Backbone:
């Protein structure tokens, strides 16, 4: 939010998406002790979040009205939801991969 209100442009939206995605990945890496997965989690969250947000924005301004708002929400929810599920998967598998020991 700070980046958008500071830059007042699309650059602020992109910077906010990057900062927010990185912050969420940092929290997930800390909670799941999955530091090795942090770069991938941040990248997946940024890509999915940004795709959903900016595709939704494009549809909103293209269609406008209530249908535009609805489609923005759908795109954003699907994009962010997909990114979050993938980041959680990476956090959990990143944690277990580093602690598994082969027997034999």
Residues:
């Amino acid at each position: 939010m700070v980046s958008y209100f500071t830059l007042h442009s699309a650059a602020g939206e992109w910077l906010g998406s990057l900062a927010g995605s990185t912050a969420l990945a940092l929290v997930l890496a800390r909670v799941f002790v999955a530091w090795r997965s942090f770069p991938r989690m941040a990248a997946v969250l940024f890509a999915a979040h940004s795709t959903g947000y900016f595709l939704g924005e494009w549809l909103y301004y293209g269609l406008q009205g209530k249908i535009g708002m609805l489609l923005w929400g759908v795109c954003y929810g699907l994009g962010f939801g997909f990114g979050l599920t993938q980041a959680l998967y990476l956090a959990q598998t990143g944690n277990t991969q580093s602690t598994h020991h082969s027997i034999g």
Observations:
- The helical segments are 2-7, 10-32, 38-63, 65-99.
